[in-house]
Write a structure and sequence with these properties.
mainly alpha; 57 residues
């Protein structure tokens, strides 16, 4: 029974490590998505500003 408990503890620790890794990866992906969204948003604002300026001419 002791071996089973030890294996169970190791299994749980491994799952915890994997969960932590997945959470870190998700955080990085979230930051990348936010960064890409902000970049595209700025591009759209610049395009819109250029269209407005062209329309005013």
């Amino acid at each position: 029974m002791l071996d089973w408990d030890r294996d169970s503890d190791e299994w749980e620790k491994q799952l915890q490590r994997e969960l932590l890794l997945i959470q870190r990866q998700q955080q990085i992906q979230k930051q990348l998505l936010i960064s890409e969204f902000q970049k595209q948003h700025q591009n759209l604002l610049r395009q819109h500003q250029a269209q407005l300026e062209e329309h005013i001419k």
